[in-house]
Design brief:
By secondary structure, the chain is an alpha+beta fold. 27% of the residues lie in helices and 29% in strands.
């Protein structure tokens, strides 16, 4: 991690203190807050047993980490963790837990955290049988990762949602976007969920036209990646522009859409997200990605 200035470190500590005040610890008096600084300058906070959507753990720093990963953040500069007994003025500045320390140094640990959240979300949303309402139990045979209803025998497997991500190519340019309503400063590729009765290739053509108003041809499959924060299995494609390159944005989905020349793409050492990998691959090889 990059060493911060004293002022930046103090800012992290102040934000961790503010996060600590939101802690809900019915079984412990010890309240912990964490502030995690991303490489792009954004700060994500969490507290122990946070009473919010992101509660797969009672660890304050992991809560902050889950929030960051949900925004697509994979690089960090530092973290501050502050704890104290309820009602105490004095604070104790501590070190992040081992899992979070590893995640800050190794992006593959972030992938593991995302997969853990995927499973947590599945367990949380499937406590009862959707057929008869009986509480479900883990597979009695312990052979499969599934939940079983002891009353009617219904079985529930982890939800995996197929979704596409596509790099649209026009000569030496690629179509880059930014999502509406998000603070992520990084460019992304067009992506979307596959609908029922639809092939992945049909999803590519539909999503591209719906989001930016252009047609594509010459689809080329690249690779897949699980993306646990949305229970996805991302299916990566490259596709060639078919006809008019004029962009018409769906403003409900995207805030930005533009054609960027490969020579203008900033190549970063990033091997975690499929989005970044596909953009960098095009920057290095150009339209050869369509071969």
């Amino acid at each position: 991690m990059t060493k911060l200035t004293m002022e930046e470190k103090q800012q992290l500590i102040r934000m961790a203190l503010a996060a600590r005040e939101k802690a809900y610890a019915p079984y412990s008096d010890f309240m912990v807050g964490a502030a995690l600084r991303a490489a792009d300058g954004r700060i994500f906070t969490g507290c122990n047993v946070e009473n919010a959507a992101f509660t797969p753990t009672s660890c304050a720093e992991r809560t902050a980490l889950f929030k960051a990963v949900a925004e697509g953040v994979t690089a960090f500069t530092d973290i501050a963790v502050v704890g104290s007994r309820r009602g105490e003025v004095n604070r104790q500045i501590t070190s992040p837990c081992g899992v979070c320390r590893q995640a800050l140094f190794d992006k593959h640990h972030i992938f593991a955290a995302m997969t853990a959240f995927h499973l947590y979300d599945w367990y949380r949303n499937n406590r009862f049988c959707g057929r008869c309402g009986t509480p479900v139990v883990p597979d009695p045979s312990h052979k499969e990762r599934m939940l079983s209803c002891p009353q009617c025998g219904n079985t529930i497997y982890p939800k995996i949602c197929p979704a596409i991500i596509v790099g649209v190519i026009d000569g030496e340019r690629i179509l880059l976007t930014k999502y509406a309503g998000r603070n992520n400063p990084n460019y992304a590729l067009i992506a979307g969920f596959t609908e029922i009765g639809e092939t992945a290739e049909e999803t590519v053509m539909r999503e591209v036209y719906e989001e930016v108003g252009v047609r594509v041809k010459n689809l080329r499959y690249y690779k897949t990646q699980p993306w646990g924060m949305a229970s996805d299995l991302l299916i990566g494609y490259y596709a060639e522009l078919d006809g008019d390159p004029s962009i018409t944005l769906d403003r409900n989905e995207l805030s930005t859409g533009l054609w960027m020349d490969r020579k203008d793409i900033i190549i970063e050492d990033e091997d975690f997200s499929l989005t970044r990998e596909m953009i960098v691959r095009f920057a290095k090889t150009g339209r050869a990605v369509l071969n």
